[in-house]
Amino acid sequence: MVVLLLGGASAAQAQVSEDPSYRKEFTYGINFNTRGGLIGGVAVRSTHVLDEKWSRFWGVEGVEVKHPKEQRVLNQSSGGSFVYGKSNYLFVLRPSYGMQRVIFRKAPESGVQVNALVGAGPSIGLLMPYYIYYDYTVRENRPGAPVQEDIRSEQYDPMNNSSASRILDRAPIFSGANQTKARIGGHLRGALSFEYGRYRDAVAGIETGFLFELYPKELTILRAQNINDGTLNTKFFPSVYLTLYIGHRS
Length: 250
What we know:
The structure is a single chain. The chain has two helices and 14 strands. By secondary structure, the chain is mainly beta. The strands form three sheets. Strands 1-2-3-6-7-11-12-14 form an eight-stranded antiparallel barrel. A three-stranded antiparallel beta sheet has the order 9-8-10, with no helix packed on it. Strands 4-5 form a two-stranded antiparallel ribbon. It is elongated, with a radius of gyration of 26 Å. The two termini are 40 Å apart.
């Protein structure tokens, strides 16, 4: 009987030791993905612990999505640069809700904790016009004839702005902000996170996984002469991502 009691006490102690010493976690980080540039975007997340294995979370991610065929061109005469055929920027906000499970729990003040997570939510795509400086100046062949410069800032349209040599530079990024159009889609993600941290109230780690994003219609990022916008662009945006994050627990 004594042995049974001692065994029961040991099991209870083991169960208590597995319980996390925190109930909430807030993290923020920098996102890198195969659809973005050097830095894809930023992310914040709030996690609530349910038990020793499961947590639920909500978060928001903001990223820029680029077309895989984007190609930057340099204008040798002006020194400016632009992305050939780019008609719109695509920025995406991704509110997300999901569940997280502990695969391997680290020791209280050392080691690495491995979590698996799945999340989903709406995707708010923001198509903002990509503006360029285009030279409409008419230059006559008569020597000494006066030249009235006509340089305009406008959304890049390869049908109207067909001469690459007349594209002097890219205009400031928010030149067409007042013409931004919203498109609603959805996304699904699955990932593994690797948490580090020597202190109970601090966390740092890496999350890596895949994301599938879908919209009802194609989102026009690039345009080209004699090519249909729907052929050049897509409504499905799969990507692989990595997020570096830090945060705190309570």
